[in-house]
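Holo model, thymidine-5'-diphosphate. Inputs:
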Amino acid sequence: MAGKHGKFITLEGMDGAGKSTHIPNIVDQVKAQVDEVICTREPGGTPVAEEMRELLLHRDMHPETETLLMFAARREHIAEVIAPALARGAYVISDRFTDATYAYQAGAKQVAVDKIAALEKWVQGPLQPDATLLFDVPVEVSLTRLAAARMPDKFEREGTAFFEKLRNAYLQRAKADPARFHIIDASRALDDVRKEVKVIIENILLSY
Ligand code: TYD
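Output:
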């Protein structure tokens, strides 16, 4: 029965892919079957990490500084929120996690993958998401959606080349770990995406 074992689910995708739209439904669906569900986000998720988020999203910095700060925020997030929740048997749903660092900092900003892998090992130990939903859209769709949205943060102001690298990096990671990743074609009508997400979450709940 779901609820007895903590599970870690992460949501990923380029800005503008629409993942934020689906989070409330996902959380409601899991809550209907699981005693305790924590909904959180990265960078952020604790007061200290949320302060780091402000810097990360609004201040320009060297890509390696950005990577180190992402992992500093992540260390805090794991220690304060994720690890204790999983230990209690809760489900943790995080809007982004380390796949975002591989996609944004390595894929799009060329930080060396082995440096990120070393930080991942240090900060996470064996902790990995049990399942990751990747909301995938073609770059033009993402850029069009962002142009219609609120004030962009630093990442959302990047151009087509950045977004192409980002998308490819995410898809490569998904391909390398098909057991963990669920790739969702998020360019379709919202209702179709919603239905697919529902089935994926149902299967994740059933599989534990
Ligand atoms: P995002 O998740 O898009 O939140 P919102 O929908 O509220 O804008 O914002 C987080 C940004 O941080 C996003 O542009 C991706 C970036 N990011 C990284 O570059 N590396 C990371 O490791 C993480 C977690 C996020």
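The longest strand covers residues 7-13. Residues 63-88 form the longest helix (26 residues).
Archived with the compound record.
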